[in-house]
Each structure stands twice: as C-alpha cells, then as structure tokens.
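Consider this pair:
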Amino acid sequence: MAAARMVSVSTFAGTHVRPSCHVSAARRGPRRARLAVSSAAGGSPLTVLVTGAGGRTGQIVYKKLKESADQFVSRGLVRTEESKGKIGGADDVFVGDIRDPASIARAIEGIDALIILTSAVPKMKPGFDPTKGGRPEFYFEEGSYPEQVDWIGQKNQIDAAKSIGVKQVVLVGSMGGTDVNHPLNMLGNANILVWKRKAEQYLADSGLPYTIIRL
C-alpha cells in the first residue's frame, strides 16, 4: 500500500487535526492548528473542494492547497462573482448558493474531500456610538440567517458529499454549541451556535469519515 503524504494548512489557533472521525476544540493563542488532508504517495492528486473560499480562513485553505498542486487539485466555492474575483477568478472557483443543492452540484462533482468553511455572518446595526456606552446590536441579512446557512446550507453540502462517496469531510464549527445560553446565540436572536451544532451532529450521524474543528 502506498504511503500517505500530508499537506498541512496552517490557519488558526489550536492543535493538529488529523483526517478521521475526529472532533477537535481549537484553543485561541499563539499556536496555530493545521488542517491536514492526506494523499497517497505516487497516486493521483486528490480533488478537494473548499466551500466558503471567499472568507478569510477559506481563502487561506484554498490557496495553500493550490501551492501543493502535485498532491491536490484545489477547488473553491463562493457565493458571488465578486468573491470569485477577489481570490483570483480561476476556473476552479465555482459560484453557488449552498441553500440550493442544484446550485452546488457542479462544484461537488468528482471531489475526494470537502472542507466546509461556510458560515452566516452577523452585521452591526448602523448608528452605534461607542463613546455613548452600551452594546452594539447585530442582525443577519434576509436569506442569510444561521438556520439557512449553518444548518440547511451545511446539510446540503453533507448530503451532496455523501451522494458521491466523498472520502473525507472537514467541518469548521464553533465552541459553545451545546450551551443554548451562549452570548453568540443572542446575536440577532438567531441561535447561530445551535444551528452549527445541529449540522455537526448531522455530519457525525452521516456515516462519512469526518473531522470537526470547533473554534
């Protein structure tokens, strides 16, 4: 059997994450976690799709995989043409809506591994003045609530991956998902961690080999 090689993608604080059925709670600090995706030495490069490739962490992972083109064929999935342009506009970057399974089918087709980095993003309501004290208020844009993005959108990705027999799924979530009273759930009254946790459990129950990273 060919020996496995690994490329590590340094992204955020925490510990080394191995591709397996594994859950890791990454700690914030000077150390950085490494997302590791293995490929068989001497074999064909693995095709890896990074969803949420337009985000800060997604861009790093997508570009790091491209730097190891002898081992990986890197693909990216972004939400808009504008985001595609910001990461170079290459033909291996697909534009799709994770809330619509048909929209992401072309990006998913033929991949070996999936790295899910999509997440709902809260926005601060205008008019907040930090000099007056108090706390800012946040909201989610219509159609981009955590239930739609962090639950339905991630479920769609997991279902698509399972339908083609993907060999590994890496899901980047958040710590605090088991605490319904966590302050992050109060952002926009949208229960973002509750929905993230539901997607994690769905992946764990899917039968797919997986790694969950909680930041």
